Each structure stands twice: as C-alpha cells, then as structure tokens.
Amino acid sequence: MNMEGLARILITFGIVLLLAGFVVLALSRLGLTGFRLPGDILIRRENFTFFFPITTMLLISLVLTLLFNLLGRR
Fold it and tell me: Are 40 and 54 within one domain?
C-alpha cells in the first residue's frame, strides 16, 4: 500500500466518523437516544448501573459487515 492509498483510507474513516457524529447529535436532539434492544444487559443497583449492549453491538456489526462487503466489491 502506498501513501496515497493510506491517505484515502484515513480520509474515508474521517468522513464516516464525522457523519456518525452528526447522526448521534441529530438522534439526541430528537430524543431517540437510550434505546435498548432485547438481549442488552442492564443491571441497576442503588449506586451502580451497568449496561452491556450485546445485542446492539451484534446488530451494528452485522450491518457494518454487510455494508463494507457491498461497498468493497468492484
């Protein structure tokens, strides 16, 4: 991989992160944050809260894998 290829990858990741930031900002302003899917683990105690979004992580992983496979084919 040459430096131009690396630069393009870094620029692409930067743009994707920027777009993800705008999506998160828009969702928070619309009040759509804090959703939980069935299978996500939430433990609440008096002075302790533990949240492990395992189902959400699996779903995001699946969507990104499909997206990158579709975009990576030439």
Answer: yes
CB 40 within 8 A of CB 53: yes
- Structure tokens, 41: 């683990």
DSSP 32: -
Reported as a single tens digit per residue, the pLDDT across 22-39 is 988 887 787 766 667 788
Query: How many structural domains is the chain composed of?
Result: 2
pTM beyond 0.85: no
* Average model confidence (pLDDT) across the chain: 86
Which residue range forms the structural domain that includes residue 22? 1-33
CA nearest 72: which of 21, 15, 12?
A: 12
How far apart CA 71 and CA 42 sit, in angstroms, is: 35
Task: Please tell me the predicted confidence (pLDDT) of residue 74.
Answer: 61
Please return the burial class of 56, using the count of CB atoms within 10 Å of its CB with bins 0-12, 13-18 and 19+: middle
